[in-house]
Automatic annotation (TrEMBL), chain A:
This is Cell division topological specificity factor. HAMAP family: MinE. One of its GO terms (biological process) is cell division. Pfam families: MinE. Belongs to the MinE family. GO terms for molecular function: identical protein binding. It comes from Alloalcanivorax xenomutans. It comes from the Bacteria. Keywords: Cell cycle, Cell division. NCBIfam families: minE, PRK00296.1. Prevents the cell division inhibition by proteins MinC and MinD at internal division sites while permitting inhibition at polar sites. This ensures cell division at the proper site by restricting the formation of a division septum at the midpoint of the long axis of the cell.
From TrEMBL, chain B:
ATP binds at residues 11-18. GO terms for cellular component: cytoplasmic side of plasma membrane; cytosol. CDD domains: MinD. One of its GO terms (biological process) is negative regulation of cell division. This is Septum site-determining protein MinD. It comes from Alloalcanivorax xenomutans.
């Protein structure tokens, strides 16, 4: 290594990959925590309905309950697949 | 007032027992009457790290079941005054650990005017871990800068915020602080390891300390002397700092940056 490492192509920084992956998984796991018990089932049923019309990935649905100044907001995010011509 | 502290992590092998032993020893060295309890029923190990494995007669489950009284179960440390160890049993019956039984033991320690009771949690989120955390006033979450450990720590933080007696009684979350172990600033600099800032950002808890990766930890467990007794080692000093912070002293964090290399090292070093 040392002086020679400058001549080699730079290796991928795995720590930043680790951080990004953790931020995503931890946020997802936190959103399911402490929320109402019906959330996982709600997510499953919504997914089933959406799938009748669009073939979406199970991971493309994100259901979340946020509490904002006394009222609860149910947030639903579905990422639709990209067009097949891509 | 007795303060009950759980040392927990979710993941195994990250340094809970090393930390429990160091913290308890460090508090006792500062004159605080302290007991450290091994909650890992079936896989007793704190006794080895504390170097008292040959003096174990009774254990936590014996005391809970009334086979022995608390004073018979406690092992008095031979090196440090004010320090007591209550080993785990090696019975495989996890149901031996009941909430009432643990409460009885903790109340007994309160009656003995312990200042601190350190509960060394087993890995996982099963009964032993829940019992170690249930009565805690404060938590120390031990984490390695590695993805599975950080994720498990986050899960444990979630459990701590709902499954302690204080949480159940509506007294809110118990304070939880992060102790990052096996830290290697050189590897952080090379982009191979999550930095202390990264881990703190993800877990969003206060930092109690950072323990550098150190040969001293293995030397300490080999010889059965908690690493905090080795004040010539970086890990020992880092634990001593963490103990000082734990009781409210301000200490700057050390061992967070790589040792500077000379010209020779920079040219030819790894």
């Amino acid at each position: 290594m040392g002086i020679f490492s400058y001549l080699l192509p730079k290796k991928q920084n795995t720590a930043s990959t680790a951080k990004e992956r953790l931020q995503i998984i931890v946020a997802r796991e936190r959103s399911g925590r402490g929320g109402p018990d019906y959330l996982p089932q709600l997510q499953e049923e919504l997914l089933a309905v959406v799938r009748k019309y669009v073939p979406v990935d199970p991971e493309a649905v994100n259901v979340q309950v946020d509490r904002e100044s006394g009222c609860e907001v149910l947030e639903l995010n579905i990422t639709l697949p990209e067009g097949e011509d891509d | 007032m007795t303060k009950i502290v759980v040392v927990t992590s979710g993941k195994g092998g990250v340094g809970k027992t090393t930390t429990s032993a160091a913290l308890a020893t460090g508090l006792a060295m500062r004159g605080h009457k302290t007991t450290v309890i091994d909650f890992d029923v079936g896989l007793r190990n704190l006794d080895l790290i504390m170097g008292c494995e040959r003096r174990v007669v009774y254990d936590l489950v014996n005391v809970i079941n009334g086979d022995a009284n608390l004073k018979q179960g406690l092992i008095k440390d031979k090196r440090v005054e004010n320090l007591f160890i209550l080993p785990a049993s090696q019975t495989r019956d996890k149901d031996a650990l009941t909430q009432e039984g643990v409460e009885k033991v903790l109340n007994g320690l309160r009656d003995m005017e312990m200042e601190y009771v350190i509960c060394d949690s087993p890995a996982g989120i099963e009964k032993g871990a829940l019992m170690a955390a249930y009565f805690a006033d404060e938590a120390i979450v031990v984490t390695n800068p590695e993805v599975s450990s950080v994720r498990d720590s986050d899960r444990i933080l979630g459990i701590l915020s709902s499954k302690t007696r204080k949480a159940e009684q509506g007294e809110g979350d118990i304070p939880a602080r992060l102790l990052l172990t096996r830290y290697s600033p050189e590897r952080v600099d090379r982009g191979e390891m999550l930095s202390v800032g990264d881990v703190q950002e993800i877990l969003a808890v206060d930092l109690l300390g950072v323990i550098p990766e150190s040969q001293a930890v293995l030397n300490a467990s080999n010889s059965g002397a908690p690493v905090i007794l080795d004040l010539e080692s970086d890990a020992g000093l880092a634990y001593a700092d963490a103990v000082a912070r734990f009781i409210g002293e301000e200490r700057p964090h050390r061992f967070l940056t790589a040792a500077k290399k000379g010209l020779f090292g920079r040219l030819f070093g790894g």
